[in-house]
Amino acid sequence: MKLSRSFTRTLRNAPKDETARSAQYLIRAGFVNKEMAGVYDFLPLGLRTLKNIEQIIREEMNAIGAEELQMSALQNPELWEKTDRWSDQEVDIWFKTELSAGGELGLAPTHEEPITNLMKTYIKSYKDLPVFAYQFQTKFRNELRAKSGIMRTREFLMKDMYSFCADEETHNEFYHKAEEAYKRVYERVGLGDCTHQTFASGGIFAKFSHEFQTELPVGEDTIYYNDDKSIVLNEEVVLPEVLDEFGVKKEDLKSENAAEVGNIFTLKYKYSEPLGLKFDSKDGKEQTVFMGCYGIGVSRVMGVIAEKFADDKGLVWPENIAPYKYYIIAIGEAGNKIASELEKEHPETILLDDRDARVGEKFADAELMGIPYRIVISDKTIAEEKVEWADRKTGETKLLTMGELTAILQK
Ligand code: ATP
Ligand code: MG
Fold first, then answer.
1. Which pLDDT tens digit goes with each residue over 115-166?
2. Do the domain assignments include residue 317?
């Protein structure tokens, strides 16, 4: 991609009311645009990053046998009345609207009700089970506070997966696979070392649900762990009876701020019962479907990564999710010619800064955007058949021969 072709531009300032550092950088680097509090547009660079995260999640969900669909954001109140989740007293984050023909609609904050209802068309017998389905979908929540940039917004991208099983045993098997898939997702997006599976409240059937929490100084949650980190607890479950159960004392626990990047729940019959999702078992008896749900905040993950790795110069993207891998700056006629040929060969991985701008400005923008590797091709180094290579994360620079560079780009 040639930077001169993009309509976005880096900005010197972020909106004054933007307090999160990640959001300031994301706006200044041209990844997102702030429409209003808690509402953001994803611009070309930001969308590529978001899509890279989405694709990693998609691959891992497909690998455990789940099937992708996409459901509507507009919600029929009737379904939500059956589970007592339509009233604003029960669920206080609804965006609701009136139809001009009369009646109400809601913008989906989550999708348990409609997907459970959808499955009534397809799940009739034990032969139709299990079903594992997921989507990437925009959710709407009228959040009271939205001040953490894209980490907490009123419109956000979620991956939500739902499992439908004949019995608890099949459910547990899939639940375990989902846990492992989640760990691989966080590993692949670059959060493996700092993301923990925690015990959380909200278990409907099982005593606990599980969350995935990333250590983050500005995170909204607090996690508690023993030094060995083999158990990590959410704040709300640090209770005397829970500590007894795990055989730990409160004074042996350390705490850390963290951001919730995903969660998994055993729902059992919470939605299948009121919505009437049943099947005929092998021996001809009618049974209720055993359910689970599994969420990842895709846009929040992007915000957490931006926040976590940023330094005083700007964003620092892990290679797997960066919008481009290489940022090329050319100096001089021969340098420009080679750079332009390389970009033509690798338009998906190279961002060529061919703007009519000062070299210093290009260096600063490469750092602000957080592209993992910067390559400077100048007439001076070309004369020795070499280019300068810099690692955004470590700051390390070295000279590469043209042959070495070609081999890296080919990978
Ligand atoms: P939180 O406790 O942060 O409010 P939640 O427990 O309500 O989130 P879920 O309804 O289970 O979250 O949603 C699944 C995932 O979606 C969460 O783990 C989180 O990563 C993400 N998420 C939830 N709310 C938001 C939001 N307002 N903006 C961005 N991502 C969100
Ligand atoms: Mg939560």
1. 999 999 999 999 999 999 999 999 999 999 888 999 999 999 999 999 999 9
2. no
Tell me, yes or no, whether 284 and 331 share the same domain.
Answer: no
Residue 320 lies in a domain: no
Bridge partners of 316, per DSSP, are none
Residue 295 Cβ inside 6 Å of ligand 1? The answer reads yes
Domain end among 279, 309, 339: 309
State the pTM of this model: 0.97
* Closest residue to atom 31 of ligand 1, CA basis: 297
Ligand 1 lined by 235 (C-beta under 6 Å): no
Is 199 in the same domain as 243?
Answer: yes
- Measured from the Cβ of residue 92, the count of other Cβ atoms closer than 10 Å reads 11
**Tally of CB atoms within 10 A around 41:** 11
**Cis bond before residue 240 (omega within 30° of 0):** no
- Do 268 and 304 fall within a single domain? yes
**Tokens at 228, concatenated:** 């060995």
Token pair in block for residue 398: 């070295």
Ligand 1 touching residue 159 (CB < 6 A): no
With respect to residue 315, please indicate whether it lies within any of the assigned structural domains. Answer: no
380 and 290 part of one domain: no
Strands (E), 168-285: 195-200, 209-215, 221-225, 232-234, 254-268, 278-280
| R_g (Cα) of the chain, nearest Å | 24
CA distance 167 to 288: 9
Burial label for 12, CB within 10 Å (0-12, 13-18, 19+), is: exposed
User: H or E element: which one contains 365?
Assistant: helix 359-369
The string of pLDDT tens digits covering residues 164-205 is 999 999 999 999 999 999 999 999 999 999 999 999 997 666
Ligand with smallest separation from the Cα of 143: 1
Domain that holds residue 397: 326-410
Number of H helices, E strands in the chain: 12, 21
